[in-house]
Fold each of these.
Amino acid sequence: MPATIISGVAIAKTIREELAADVATLSSRHGLVPGLVTILVGEDPASQSYVAAKNKTAHAMGIHSEQITLPAETSEAELLRIVETCNRNPAVHGILVQLPLPRHINEAKVLFAIDPAKDVDGFHPVNAGKMMLGERCFLPCTPHGILELLQRSGVETSGAEVVVVGRSNIVGKPIANLMLQKRPGGNATVTVCHTRTRDMTAHTRRADILIVAAGVARMIKADQIKEGAVIIDVGVNRIGQTAAGKAILAGDVDFDDVVQKAGAITPVPGGVGPMTITMLMKNTLQAARQAAGID
Ligand SMILES: NC(=O)c1ccc[n+]([C@@H]2O[C@H](COP(=O)([O-])OP(=O)(O)OC[C@H]3O[C@@H](n4cnc5c(N)ncnc54)[C@H](OP(=O)(O)O)[C@@H]3O)[C@@H](O)[C@H]2O)c1
């Protein structure tokens, strides 16, 4: 029997409706409109489309969203000055600096300059540290979205063998950490694979839940998974374009090969992607509430 498709589009839609209702309540009861600033440096087409999607979603949900677009040659000092201005602006509750930044700018320096109370991407060391300790914080959007996908699809994580392929700071490490936490949605036994892993397939074949965030198109095949496993495909790889110039995307999992053997699987596109943006909105709402002491 083919796998159940875990639709990020459908789950994200439900969450966005819940959040939009919360935003409306915040506005009518407290006169507070959550404010998000997205900062884009340069003209990378993928980054442009990500930022546009974030702003569009924010507007649709009643979140005030402003995009600051800067030329690629913007200096690090100028970018830091803009971040500081946003830090001081009480109407701005969330700040997102779109990555990657041009090479001459130190990404860590810029991310660390964001007020942790406005760090809706959850990349600041204060939030990363709190996450590791299991404290309340802004969770990074993609791992947060994966948790929601699993939870809302009724996937039991407690005691499950979870294998994560990839150890980046934005996906692999935080999702591994979150699945390990001693609380509902966590309590898993977690293994993390990367390019130095000796026999990756030996690990992936054991996984009840396999989370792949490697950035290698269709690398995971059916013979590398366990029958009935839940497969979360984070990868977004551009493998070509249509005659109309639209990007053709593939995940890190060979969907057509794996779909007959897996128990459940997220598609690409339409799986993790919509959840990432939705969690950004959730964090922005949380930031606005916290700033106003309404939480
Ligand atoms: N849907 C979304 O919202 C969303 C959000 C973020 C990212 N993504 C996508 O997710 C993918 C990963 O993103 P990322 O930022 O985490 O990437 P990244 O920073 O490039 O990290 C990739 C990780 O995968 C590991 N890896 C690469 N090739 C491997 C292989 N053949 N075998 C085992 N491990 C391998 C790397 O190992 P080493 O550490 O040893 O190099 C690294 O830890 C990309 O396709 C990205 O576009 C999607």
Amino acid sequence: MINWEELKHIHVIKKLDEILSSWFNTAILLTDSHGTIHNHTKGEKSDCNNMLVQLILQSGNGQEFLENFSTDVCNKIAKSEKALEVVDGPLPNTKAIFAKVKIDNEFLGAVFAWPFLPHDLTSADKEALKSAAIREGLNANDVEKAVESLKAVTDANLYYMQELVQLVSQEIETLHQEISTREERINALNKELGVRYRYDNIIGKSKPMQDVYTLLDKIKNSDSTVMISGENGTGKELIARAIHYNSPRKDKVILTINCAAFNENLLDSELFGHVKGAFTGAVKDKKGLFEAADKGTIFLDEIGDMNGTMQVKLLRVLQEGTILPVGATEARKVDVRVITATNKDLKSMVETGEFREDLYYRINVINVHVPALRDRKEDIPVLIDHFIAKGCEEKGIAEKRLAKRAMEKVFDYSWPGNVRELQNEIERLLVLTGDDPMIAVDLLSPRIREFGEHTKIQGVRVAGKLKDALEELEKTMIREGLKRTNWNKSRLAKELGISRAGLIMKVDKYSLDKRKIFASMNAKNRTPLDDVEEDYYEEEEKIS
Ligand SMILES: Nc1ncnc2c1ncn2[C@@H]1O[C@H](COP(=O)(O)OP(=O)(O)OP(=O)(O)O)[C@@H](O)[C@H]1O
Ligand SMILES: [Mg+2]
């Protein structure tokens, strides 16, 4: 199945549509193999530039009118060998081009370019066309304007038009293929996934996460100290909680202490408590966090930021299982499990003397390393589903999904901020996407949308065949135009809808410069007209 919905947003296809519309004033209809049109939604205002198609789509049964035609053609071409054909359009004396979309040799849809006029159209033919359009219920004045704006296409131009329409169908085929390959890749990765897709609130099906789960299972019933390491936003705190809530201590508290945020003066009494009169303001005994967490868990986050004095004190707690409240003379026994987390490389901090070696070995009894998201991309789809489901439930809205193109971009991005960054992106998208059930690729943050853009296939595709074809077309248009306007660049630039400077650059690029052409021309082939032209040219040079 082709995802037409997505294809109409694709840049290359939009661009081709624009080119066909500006050169030939024709519209592009994308249909499935039954002739059902997919790039215009019934009852919605169409962004098509061709006035006649606009009028038809706006009229009551315009879509049916066009679909009767496309269905008819699709039925006929389904069996034929031809990939592309020029046929009579749904209104008399108009022409249409269609190109098949074939995937694995199967006819899955078509690209229609309609309307344009044959080059030998008589004014009587044109009147017949107008009357037919009016009979279809269109307003006579509108029809007059719409039909007059249609282009009669010469044989030479018809060739380029066919090429362009074919390019649209080829683009669709390539993109479809690319999307399926990507899906296969994701599916293949999925096969390698473990059975568990979550551990408490930790989401992840990847092999590395399965290993984390296995380790968490093993340490579930032990009291040993655990150190969780991993980059920012990989879910270290989530894991610390999972460890606590799966341990026999789960009915007691888990207290989190952010070592980086700790004020050294407060530290002692905060962590270990104090006795009445220990210092000014110590009017009564106060329990420290370690005592408050008795029989529970203490989570020391950002342990790499813990200063030297604090490191000594912590070491004592870990070694002796006792604390000494400020001002107390006797140590008190505490039963706490210590879990630490860091995104720093503690090992090298030990080497540089920033972190105590003895403490390092004390806290690093068991190490849980959380892999970065870019090393387990296969978790991205489940994480996205999870965050979308969560977000939509919170908002009380129906679930949305990510367009495939958007999913690909998300997949390719390197996620320096890991799961947190992904979560923030999804939350942002849910807000931006409004009522639309599908999250479109253009809504993605630019850094994600544009990631690796210049190195990706799309650029290559545009640079290859399409670029050649477009340049060829451009060159011909300009060459013919120069002849027709007697090398009047100002007039031609206006006709082509580009600046005069732009035209001069293109003339240069394609070596359509008259002087060069004259130079290569054999003198005896010259006609009087050539001299006239040359005068014109010199005149032009003076102006510019
Ligand atoms: N595997 C995961 N499944 C679901 N949510 C996750 C996962 N990993 C991270 N998150 C979410 O991402 C955010 C960051 O997670 P968390 O705070 O646990 O990361 P961290 O490693 O402690 O980050 P930091 O290094 O910045 O302190 C949280 O909102 C968390 O719920
Ligand atoms: Mg954290």
